[in-house]
Amino acid sequence: MGILKPILFVQVLLISLFSSSHSLLPSRHHFRHHHHPHSHIVNGSYHIKHFTQNLDHFDYTPESYRTFQQRYLIDTTCWGGAKKGSPIFVFIGDQEDIQHTAGTKGYMFEINKVFKAMVVFIEHRYYGKSIPYGSKEVAYKNSTTLGYLNTRQALADVATLVTDLKKNVSALDSPVVVFGSGYAGIMATWFRLKYPHVALGALASSAPILDFDNMVSPHSFTDIITKNIKSESESCYKTIKKSWGEFEKILKQNGGGDKLSKSFKICAPHPIKDDLHDKLFGLIELALIYSSLSDYPYESHIHTPLPPFPVKRMCEVIDYPKGARDTASRILGALNIFYNHTGKSPCFNLTSESKSSGIQGWKWQGCTELVEPSIKNKNDSIFPPDYKHQHKQKSSDCPKDVKPRPHSITTEFGGHVSLL
């Protein structure tokens, strides 16, 4: 029992680390036009493995017996072994490639030195290289093949793989703790709720488990981002807030679109005027959101390479510009801190589209079960007056033969009551 006692702290942290104010944000593919994130393996030496996984864990039709190869990473460098009952730490994958995910989770590799744990990263079905039906083209072909992309199936994947792994290494007595952040944090939480016999505890960081069925204030998301930037610099907040109106006026002028495209160094060909409004505003909004979510006192590479205290750095270039002092130049300086910290991008590409499985799969999940409530904007919000939470899935992006089930999450996993 000696090794179990320190692990119990995870069950306490499970509650304390929840954050209902963080919206269920999509993956880094929203930054695909602006940079290529770098993965850094921190103190980890893992092996890439594959597990023959069931396509369907709940039905007994012929189709349900299909299988696919699910990728996982395993690091046993510090593991104390099965005979000592040393723990197994499992990171439940999200919509990212699992190797990229492992490269941003140095914490996992640090604490396994203390707990002598085996570290496992399990890739989420339909993402990365864990693609059913043999190819992304087939897996994402229609609603029938995409129907197996849901949280219940993904959680069952983890339970099946972990149970089999423990048997194979004769570690039936080794306690399992699951980890995750953001969507993966939600999954870790739900896994502990649904499979308590498999996982002793869960550590969920910034896991918005209450971001469904209107369980939190519709203003909470924009309030948190506004408060974070405003607390850094009142003048920075005011500059950003007034910038929306200034850019709106410029766009209404003859040649205003070209003027803003040049001011913000938008790659040619420039988007048409109406598209420029949405994409430029979206570019700025994403920078405000993700800089706040990644406002660490050290360099990070979670969403994009960022310096320490990115919000502070962005506000510094807004408040104290080294070159031109007009509003567009100030905001451009802030965008460069976020999107172009490495200085390798000559312009912002707003016209290319991504067909990656990450963004396609995330759209599907947003259309079906991960249906977010509406996000509302207050007058003092740092976002534009008509701000529409652009991460909320648009109905036009959803297949016509599929209807969302906005209440399925709270029915399946509970809401406030799940924390009791």
From the coordinates shown, what is the CATH architecture of the largest domain?
Answer: 3-Layer(aba) Sandwich
* Order of helical and strand elements: HHEEEHHEHHHEHEHHHHHHHH
Radius of gyration (CA) equals: 22 Å
Report the top-level CATH class of the largest domain. Answer: Alpha Beta
Helix content: 40-55%
What fraction of residues sit in β-strands?
Answer: 5-15%
Mean pLDDT over the full residue set: 85
SSE class: alpha/beta
CATH superfamily of the largest domain: Alpha/Beta hydrolase fold, catalytic domain
For the biggest β-sheet, the strand order reads: 1-2-4-3-5-6
Largest sheet: 6 strands, mixed
Number of E strands: 6
InterPro entries: AB_hydrolase_fold, Peptidase_S28, Ser_carbopepase_S28_SKS
Organism: Asparagus officinalis
Protein name: Serine carboxypeptidase S28 family protein
Signal peptide: 1-23
Structure description:
It is a single chain. This protein has a six-stranded mixed beta sheet. The model is unreliable at 1-23 and 26-43 (pLDDT under 50). It starts with a helix and ends in a 7-residue tail after the last helix. With 420 residues, it is of the alpha/beta class. It contains 16 helices and six strands. The longest helix has 21 residues, at 273-293. The chain has two domains: 4-205, 3-Layer(aba) Sandwich (Rossmann fold); 220-339, Four Helix Bundle (Hemerythrin (Met), subunit A) (Up-down Bundle), CATH 1.20.120. Residues 1-23 form the signal peptide. Residues 379-407 are annotated as: Disordered. Keywords: Glycoprotein, Hydrolase, Protease, Signal.
